[in-house]
Model the fold of this input.
Amino acid sequence: MYVVGRYSDILSAQEAAAFLRSHGLPAGVSGGLYSPSDGMWGFPTTALPYRVLVARKDQRALARHLLAEIDSEADEPATNWEAQSRPDLARLDQELIPPCPACGGRLSPTDELCSACGLAVDIVELMLETHGPEGLAQCYPDPDEQVHLSEEEWVALDLPCTACGYSLAGLPFVGVCPECGCRYSKTIEPS
Ligand SMILES: [Zn+2]
Ligand SMILES: [Zn+2]
Done:
């Protein structure tokens, strides 16, 4: 599991995970204190206890790119997790940056306009088109932030049933959806 965002409240984390899923990226929420007995989330003990997770390393850059997108559309002021979800283009390897699509000129990581022809360029988009999500992996300060969930964390992991959308928070790693009776597994891999 790879952390792609951290949130102070469960609703924002669930919203972010749902947004990723709507873009075809399986994502789940972990963190906070979930009590299976009363089905409630307890009070968090750290500032940003709710983590949005994806299963594979190659899903991470795209997920963070999408989260940064929600963030740029939100009217709310900056929060802590935002800094983590925005790619730090200064970390890009100059050699990997594709040339200007209009004139073929060399682009720098921080260019918003091609210095040769003046075309407006989006380095993030160009990198995604050329190298795929992994192209942006180097832009994050914690490229290997991988978490291994404990049994309790797997139970608390909030994922919808892939068949009916019922929340599987509070249920074991594998089992049968109480709502529709389908077998599920909380691997966050597309089935
Ligand atoms: Zn150009
Ligand atoms: Zn179901």
